[in-house]
Amino acid sequence: MPKMKTKKSAAKRYSFTGSGKVKYKKQNLRHILTKKSSKRKRNLRHPGILSPDNVPMIKKKLLPYG
Q: Can you tell me whether residue 8 is helix, strand or coil?
């Protein structure tokens, strides 16, 4: 059986924490920042944790060796 290929677009967007949760960078922090409040921009800097419902799909289909 050949090796499974990692979806490279997913590998650039998601990473795993030590406990197996899926971490990602939050959206909406690239442009049009003047109308967003400082509090909103500050909260967008921190990584997001993916919902546990979506973790099995990410691990199995997109990042099989993650």
A: helix
Domain map (residue ranges) of the chain: 8-62
At residue 24, φ and ψ (nearest 5 deg) are -150, 160
Q: What is the pTM of this model?
A: 0.83
User: In a 3-state reduction of DSSP, which class is residue 63?
Assistant: coil
Beta carbons within 10 angstroms of residue 62's beta carbon? 17
Could you please state the CATH topology (level 3) that the domain comprising 8-62 is classified under.
Answer: Factor Xa Inhibitor (4.10.410)
Measure the CA–CA gap between 39 and 26, rounded to whole angstroms. Answer: 14
In tens, the pLDDT along 21-42 reads 999 999 999 999 999 999 999 9
> How many Å apart are CA 10 and CA 12, to the nearest integer?
5
